[in-house]
Design goal:
Blueprint lengths: L1 H51 L51 H14 L14 E5 L7 H13 L3 E6 L1 H10 L4 E4 L6 H6 L7 E4 L7 H16 L4 E3 L1 H9 L10 E3 L3 H12 L8 H11 L4 E4 L4 E4 L4 E4 L11 H19 L9 H24 L5 H6 L1 H9 L2
Parallel strand pairs: 1-2, 1-4, 2-3, 4-5, 5-6, 6-7
Antiparallel strand pairs: 7-8, 8-9
Helix pairs in contact: 2-11, 3-10, 7-8, 8-9, 10-11, 11-13
The chain binds ligand NPW and adenosine-5'-triphosphate.
């Protein structure tokens, strides 16, 4: 009797997944057709505008070329951001140039793009579809940072969050939360292959929170980045991951599926390593733009009083209201939320984000969310606010910004 029941359950489950696969194939085809239609319209629009204006820089988008179709991880076109072949439609670029002089409307435009990439919640989905995020970090000294990043990823809406840390840190991190999957492998002699086994099951890697700066661990992180790059995995690099990049920029230079999230100190280190001169503090926009270009158009978020985001082409400014409270761990919250939003922005495809750079859209979403959490928590706790208080606000902050 029990066996029959179990068999029936297995059959039902198989049927469900078969049905789900067919449904997803149909949905893929529909999106593909929609995308092609939109690209044709954009091309027509570009031609019309070219006819109307003598401005030679108004080029029609070239993103529908077949080379963009072959992608590494079954994301839509937006994954392949080779700036040498990608000429974004300047007509659509304006709403992205967030400068202090044109705030409100532009802000709304980019918020709308973030809203567009949020995946719908339906009963047809299975665990994992809304995001599986890996955090590389956590050592004896720093167990809070990887926890903050990993739990934020879950609270933003990822289904699974896995931490790859040193042996010392693992039990401590597990004891903070039963929601996290924790692998004590980062100081293992075979750390790179231990993590590599999991990479095909992850959507984004966040590298650095609480990782520490021991040579052996940094070597392992380097090996993990190489593996992730070879699989086309999106990578967010923060904290000690940025220390590593400042020593050896070539590890990530030119990999446009990465986002770097430096604070002021980390930015200065990277800038000096890449441009061999101190940061020009009177020209922050120019500095972030130049660093991104020097890194091969990788998206960079320079965190601070205003978060500056650049892919070497554009500079976005996120000055959403936060607070003057600067407790440690806010950057970890940003990195965890960014891990999820990057995956969603890539998954959504170019039509949902007006063919703009998905990494910019994700970065703007994560910065706004971090600042909104800060603002809400500060309203409640004032000076005693901590990053844990901000994490408790993720759900309501997310709804307020993106789902109302
Ligand atoms: N609970 C945990 O487990 C947490 C663990 N964390 C983990 O700690 C690790 C090291 O990260 P980190 O940020 O302390 O290192 P780094 O960037 O070298 O800064 C060193 C010094 O630079 C300065 N400084 C910093 N920002 C500045 C600014 N905006 N403007 C100006 N100066 C600035 C400041 O110097 P000070 O003012 O103290 O002289 C600061 O002390 C890393 O793994 C991280 O993930 C954190 O995530 C927090 C929560
Ligand atoms: N001066 C500031 N005014 C307002 N908000 C700020 C300021 N500095 C930082 N923030 C906010 O805090 C976020 C994290 O930036 P921060 O410089 O604290 O990162 P971090 O040092 O890497 O953090 P962590 O403590 O996690 O290592 C920024 O994205 C921004 O939202």
């Amino acid at each position: 009797m029990m066996e029959r029941f179990l068999q029936q359950s297995v059959d039902a489950e198989e049927k469900f997944y078969k049905y789900e696969e067919q449904r997803l194939q149909i949905e893929d085809k529909r999106r593909e057709a929609e995308h092609t239609r939109e690209m044709q319209m954009l091309q027509m629009l570009g031609q019309m505008l070219n006819g109307l204006s003598s401005a030679s820089q108004m080029t029609a988008p070239s993103r529908s070329s077949p080379s963009h179709k072959a992608n590494l991880r079954n994301y839509p076109d937006s994954l392949h951001l080779n700036h040498s072949t990608f000429s974004p439609p300047i007509v659509l670029e304006r709403p992205f140039s967030l400068r202090p002089t044109r705030p409100a409307k532009d802000m709304e435009n980019i918020f709308q793009l973030v809203r567009n990439v949020i995946p719908p919640m339906t009963s047809k989905k299975h665990k994992g579809q809304d995001g599986k995020i890996g955090i590389i970090g956590g050592c004896k000294e720093y167990t809070g940072a990887p926890y903050f990043a990993a739990i934020t990823a879950l609270k933003v809406g990822a289904d699974l969050s896995q931490v790859f840390c040193t042996k010392d840190a693992a039990t401590v991190i597990k004891s903070y939360s039963p929601e996290l999957i924790v692998h004590p492998v980062l100081d293992h002699p075979n750390a790179v292959s231990e993590v590599d086994k999991w990479l095909p099951r992850l959507h984004t890697l966040v590298i650095g929170p609480g990782m520490g700066r021991e040579d052996a661990i940094l070597d392992n992180a380097k090996g993990i980045i190489e593996k992730a790059k070879s699989k086309g995995l999106p990578i967010v690099i923060d904290a000690d991951g940025l220390w590593l990049i400042a020593q050896q920029p070539s590890i990530i230079q030119g990999y446009q599926r990465a986002v770097l999230t430096p604070n002021f100190m980390e930015f200065s280190r990277l800038y000096e390593a890449m441009l061999s001169e101190p940061v020009e503090t009177s020209d922050q926009h120019g500095s972030v733009l130049r660093l991104s270009q020097a890194m091969g158009n990788i998206t960079i978020i320079q965190k601070g009083e205003r978060d500056l985001i650049s892919d070497g082409d554009k500079v976005l400014v996120c000055s959403h209201e936060g607070s003057s409270r600067r407790c440690g761990g806010q950057g970890d919250l940003l990195a965890g939320s960014l891990g999820v939003l990057v995956h969603w922005a890539l998954l959504a495809g170019p039509e949902k984000i007006n063919a703009q750079n998905p990494f910019l859209v994700a970065a703007f979403g994560a910065c706004s969310l971090t600042r909104q959490c800060n603002h809400q928590a500060f309203q409640k706790y004032g000076r005693s606010m901590t990053t844990s208080d901000m994490i408790s606000e993720v759900g309501t902050a997310f709804n307020k910004l993106f789902e109302t």
